[in-house]
Amino acid sequence: MKVRDLHAWGVHGVDLDIRKGEILGIAGLVGSGKSRAFRAIFGLNEILRGQVTFQGEDLTGARPETLIRKGVFYLPSDRKTEGLVLGATARENIALSMLERKEARGAFGFRSPSKLRGMTDEVGRRVDLNQAFLDRFVSKLSGGNQQKVLFGKGMSSEREVYILDEPTVGVDMGARAAIYRLIRQIAEAGKAVVVISSDLLEVMNLSHRLLVFANGRITAELSGQEIEEQAILSHFFQHERLSA
User: Which CATH code is given to the segment(s) 1-71+159-244?
Assistant: First the structure.
């Protein structure tokens, strides 16, 4: 995915590339524009100017459902209001992302409850969600298990790009470790992963390449050994990207 000269509410001319097999970290203070940029890319916020292309196709201003069909998954920072149906079970939440898959249908083209059950069981294992929790209401699960259900929705169909906004917010250390393993596995499978996080150590340790946002702009692009705390912090208050 390529983004060029992106302007949106709180975003002022962002250029970036999202690459296969790479974890792209996004760091910045609250209000830096890091989340707003990707909400615009995913069609949740209006794009005022610029271009978004995915696998060579212009998807500037496309609606979220279009991007989902194309193979882009967005994990919102607020799972309770934007990511999950709290009054449904974990299994039902995951199944919502599988309803259009051919594998979920029986011989006459109708959705097969038994096939959906087997598919959701498999996703539960992939995201390290205890099988006993699949049939519990999401509202009754811990924050960590709710987040695993949200990841399960992303793993329920083949995706090419995973945009993860605050992927471990409000989860315990055990769930964090499981989520970190999952993020690395996604990238190792050749998918592109974006991790937007206010947890500096988290984004430093996960990223192959890291972009720093400040005042709605990218102020630094770091990779490899350049991804170091003081280097990142020094760019939090700059107004434009420094030239190499």
Answer: 3.40.50.300
